[in-house]
Amino acid sequence: MLSTLLVLAEATGHTTAAHGEAAAGGITKIFTDFGISTPFFIAQAVNFAIVAAILWYFAFKPVLSTIDERNKQIEQGLKDAAESKAQLSATKEEIVKTLYKAQADATLVIEAARKTAKELADREAQTATVHANELITKAQQSIQLEHKKMLEETRGELARLVVATTQAVLAKELSDLDRSRFNEAAARELSKV
Question: Residues 162, 183: contact at Cβ < 8 Å?
Fold first, then answer.
């Protein structure tokens, strides 16, 4: 290959003849010292280039593209994980706020229920007191009416008994006129009692 390059260089005229011979001689000497044949070396170099190209296109390039794709997926996964973590944090904060608000609302509802229950109990106690007072007043009125009725009945009975007793005692000694005056006076006295 080097000899081919030397031939091309001579054809273009860039190198001097002495320089070309020294370079060709040096390369040829290295090849002969190491036991390398030029056509075999060129064939090996071409084979290496073909294998390297095949490996590049069919092995390294797909592997590198797969690695790049996986790196992108990993970066996207990390980005998604960070977003999920942020969303989770925001959701936790929202849940905590909601719980605090619900607790505050529940406290207000409980306070309102207690207040309403107390007002209802007070109102019912007042209603019961008023009803009991009404019953007591009605009972007292009924007792007074019964007392008056009993007194009137007792007075009437007493008057009847007094008149009957007086008539029995005085029936023999009083005249009819005296008896009727006496009965009227006794009735007036009894009605005052």
Answer: no
Taking the whole predicted model, whether its pTM rises above 0.85 is answered as no
Measured between its terminal Cα atoms, the distance across the chain in Å is 164
DSSP string, 78-103: HHHHHHHHHHHHHHHHHHHHHHHHHH
35 Rama sector, left if φ>0, alpha if ψ -120 to 50, beta otherwise = left
d(CA 141, CA 134) in angstroms, rounded, equals 10
Give dist(CA 180, CA 166) in Å, integer: 11
Q: Residues for the chain: how many in total?
A: 193
For 24, other C-beta atoms within 10 Å of its C-beta total 16
Please report, rounded to a whole number, the percentage of residues in the chain having pLDDT higher than 70. Answer: 82
